[in-house]
Hints:
globular; transmembrane helix; transmembrane; 1% strand; two-stranded antiparallel sheet
Amino acid sequence: MLSAARRTVAFFRKRANHCLPNVVRVLTFVLPLLALGLLTGVTTVLFGFGGGFVVVPVVYYVTRAQADPGVDPMAVAVATATAVMVVNALSATLSQRRAGRLRRDYVWPLAAYIGVGAVLGSLVATVVGGGAQRVLFIAYIAVTLLDTLLRKGFLTHDPDAEPRLLGRRTTTAGGVAIGAVTSFLGVGGSVMTVPLLRRRGLPMGEATAMANPLSLPVAVAGTAVYALFGEGGGAGPGHLGSVDLVAGALLLAGSLPAIAVTRRLVGRVPDRVHAVSYVVLLAVVLAAFLFV
C-alpha cells in the first residue's frame, strides 16, 4: 500500500516537473505577447505606430529572459517589431483608406524616399548591433517626447487653418532621413511623420492615418534586410534571420482583432485628447526602457 502511494506521488511529481516549464513559458512568453498584441493593434490605428514603439521593449525583455547567452535581444526586438509592422500597417492602411482619411499628396512620393532610407538604416543596424540600438532608441524617444511638449504646433490644432503641403526638401532628404532613422530603431515611420504632418496643420486623425502607409516602406525594407542578413536570433529555431517568428505570430494574433475593433473609434476621439494620448504613450515606453 505504501509503495503504491509512493509510486503515485512519484508519477504526479514527474508530470508536474514536465508540465511546469510549459506553464512558466505560457505565463512569461505567450500571454504577455498576446496581451501586448492587443495594445499594438490599438496603437497602430490610433497613433499609426504599426506596433514598433510597443513591440520593441516587449520583445526585448521577453527575448532577454528566454534566449541563449549568444542572442542579441535588442536585434531580435527591432527585427521582430519591423516584421509585425508589415501586417499591422497594411491592415490599418486598408481600413483608413476605406474611411477616406488618406491624402495622396502627403503619402506620395514621400513613401518612396522613406523606403530608400529604410534599406540604408536596416543595413547599418545589422552591422552596429543591439547595444547601440537600445541607447539610441531611448535617446530618440526622449527627444521626440520633449519636442512634442516644448515646441508649438503638436498639442494644439486650429481647425480653421489650411494644412500646408510638404516641400521638396522635406519630401526627398527628409523622407530618406525618416526611413533611415526609423528602420534602424524598428519603430516605423510614424514617430517622425506624425509630428511632421501635425505641424503642417493636419488634425491628429489624419496625421496618424497617413502614418500607416508611410510606415509600410520601413516595415517591408527592414524586414527583408533583417531576415536575410540579421544574426541576432538566426542561430535558434523559430527565427528567420533576426526575426522571431513565434513572437511575431503571437503579437499579430492579438493585434489584428484589435485593429478591426479600434478603427471604428478613431473619428470619435477629440483632437486634443488624441494628441495628449500620443505624448503619454511616448512617456510610458520611455519609462519602460529606463526603469523596468
